[in-house]
Amino acid sequence: MRLATWNVNSIRARVVRTVDFAVREHIDVLAMQEIKCKPEQFPYEPFEAAGYEVHAHGLNQWNGVAIASRLPIDDVRTAFPGMPGFAKGHEGPDAPQEARAIGATIDGVEVWSLYVPNGRSLDDPHYQYKLDWLAALTDYAQSTIASHPELPLSFVGDFNIAPTDEDNGDPTVVVGATTHVSPLERQAFQTLLDVGMADTVRPLVPSGYTYWDYKQLRFPRNEGLRIDFILGSHPFADAVTGAAIHRNERKGEIPSDHVPVVVDLDFAAEDDDDRPMFW
After folding, report:
1. Per-run averaged pLDDT (10 residues), the chain, 279 residues
2. I need a labelling partner for 140 at 20 to 30 A (CA). Which of 13, 29, 114, 222 fits?
3. What is the CATH number of domain 2-269?
4. Domain boundaries of the chain, sorted by first residue
């Protein structure tokens, strides 16, 4: 299986680029974020013509997530247990949920396309919402890994966190002054790793950003952030045979400010006890 994640920053504006990439790179499963449309507005036809089944979750012109797959999609869900909601001026457990998660089972792999809240600023209620959202995601990961240790579980998408200083090349993103790099956000990301979700890309791709702001020539100066991830439980991570960050997708006509991140998975190699042994 070849799995990719991409914050497309409006699928209706970039559907041609998105489908062309998926076909050209032989993507089996594509998780998308910031589709910025309702399901009935999603441009399904180009994906279907290319052999993809699509499930989308969106509520308005903001946020929104989707999964496109050439493999059968089962058990589609639009929220993980405990996922908090948010609305300006509306606090409490009954706040409406945003379209930030869609999960499905594909060829035995549980895949979640996630668009983690931005946080906006360190003193904004959206920042605490972001931390609460990540805490609930971590609880779900921990409980799922405990109850189904053999399940390949994956969280992929735009996490809006640069977990280390090496993941931050934007001089305007400063620890102590802005979101994405604050100690609490980085700790939340690390806690997700600590419960059993591994970063499957960085061991194979030791450098590179996934996002560059449109402003101030950030891309030509390579002043980017690595905030898009493919995290996986141990059965998922152990099956990863390759990874790539497709930097060139930030070039050309009307690019997204994010680029695709891709992993190759080979579960047969993990399960095949009859493989020849070499020494």
Report:
1. 98 98 98 98 98 96 95 98 88 85 98 98 96 98 98 98 98 97 98 98 97 97 98 98 98 97 89 43
2. 29
3. 3.60.10.10
4. 2-269
